[in-house]
Amino acid sequence: MVKVKVEFLGGLDVIVGKERIHKVEVTRDDGNAVNVGDLIDYIVAKMIKEKNDVEVFIDNGSIRPGILTLINDTDWELEGEKEYELDDGDVVSFTSTLHGG
């Protein structure tokens, strides 16, 4: 089990009950380390309120283009994306860079 803080910014909070900051506990049944991919699965399964909103967050099995994903303030692409192993206290931020006008 790992305890992390998850932030939904840039309007993404609307898909998770309009709360920007969440403290979550994510576990794996197989005993392996919890990674960002597991966190994404958790968000889709337990945090996104309306299943129609999943496509706002996920595209082709990964975070939708236009959503900046940071792990402890570092771009997740530099950290291994979904394979990054989470530690207690990590902060994962999802920020939409797409804004209506």
TrEMBL record:
This is Ubiquitin-related modifier 1. Its main location: cytoplasm. Signal peptide: none annotated. Acts as a sulfur carrier required for 2-thiolation of mcm(5)S(2)U at tRNA wobble positions of cytosolic tRNA(Lys), tRNA(Glu) and tRNA(Gln). Serves as sulfur donor in tRNA 2-thiolation reaction by being thiocarboxylated (-COSH) at its C-terminus by the MOCS3 homolog UBA4. The sulfur is then transferred to tRNA to form 2-thiolation of mcm(5)S(2)U. Prior mcm(5) tRNA modification by the elongator complex is required for 2-thiolation. Also acts as a ubiquitin-like protein (UBL) that is covalently conjugated via an isopeptide bond to lysine residues of target proteins such as AHP1. One of its GO terms (molecular function) is sulfur carrier activity. PANTHER family: RURM1 PROTEIN (PTHR14986). Keywords: Cytoplasm, Isopeptide bond, tRNA processing, Ubl conjugation pathway. It is found in: Cytoplasm. It holds the Pfam family Urm1. Belongs to the URM1 family. GO terms for biological process: cell budding; cellular response to oxidative stress; invasive growth in response to glucose limitation; protein urmylation; tRNA wobble position uridine thiolation. The modification 1-thioglycine is found at G101. There is a cross-link at G101 (Glycyl lysine isopeptide (Gly-Lys) (interchain with K-? in acceptor proteins)). SUPFAM superfamilies: MoaD/ThiS. CDD domains: Ubl_Urm1. Pathway: tRNA modification; 5-methoxycarbonylmethyl-2-thiouridine-tRNA biosynthesis. It comes from the Eukaryota. One of its GO terms (cellular component) is cytosol. The keyword Manganese does not apply. The gene is TPHA0L00670. C-terminal thiocarboxylation occurs in 2 steps, it is first acyl-adenylated (-COAMP) via the hesA/moeB/thiF part of UBA4, then thiocarboxylated (-COSH) via the rhodanese domain of UBA4. The lineage of its organism: Eukaryota, Fungi, Dikarya, Ascomycota, Saccharomycotina. The keyword Cytoplasm applies.
